[in-house]
Amino acid sequence: MQYPLTYKQFYEGLKQGKVLGLKCRSCGAYTAPPKMCCAECTGSNLEVVELSGRGEIKTFTVIRVPPEGFTAPYIVAMAELEEGPWLLGNLEGVDADQASLDLIGKKVKVGHKVIPPMRYSAGEGVAVTFSLA
Q1: How many domains in the chain?
Q2: How far apart are CA 81 and CA 2, in angstroms?
Q3: Structural domain range at position 107
Q4: pTM exceeds cut of 0.85
Q5: Nearest partner of 30 among 4, 59, 2, judged by Cα
Q6: Region of residue 107 (left: phi > 0; alpha: psi -120 to 50; beta: else)
Q7: Residue 132 and residue 43: Cα distance in Å, rounded?
Q8: pLDDT by residue for the chain (133 residues), tens digit each?
Q9: Do both 83 and 129 map to the same domain?
């Protein structure tokens, strides 16, 4: 079985300002980031679609002890997209030291940032980001 949407294609889409996902032709559910099968019904009849890139913060955490190559503090959030799938990404434009539960329910727009190669990476990376809408 071949992936209908690879992570490389997903990240290249982000770099072009597009949030690509998968729509199940069997149940109509949307999946993002890409997976081999539908997150709802596990069907494999999937088509690549462009998602709205808009969502709502459902939860977040402040990272104070970062992995190598990152600078703390920063916010990692989980947002539910309008189409249904949940994405994990960095919340930008919000002071991590001022983060409070008021962030839950805030509307966000999906973006991206390029991460330079690090010691244990396979080269340049791309990270999902959110900004308050």
Answers
A1: 2
A2: 25
A3: 52-133
A4: yes
A5: 4
A6: beta
A7: 34
A8: 688 999 999 999 999 999 999 999 999 999 999 999 998 999 999 999 999 999 999 999 999 999 877 899 999 999 999 999 999 999 999 999 999 999 999 999 999 999 887 777 777 888 999 999 9
A9: yes
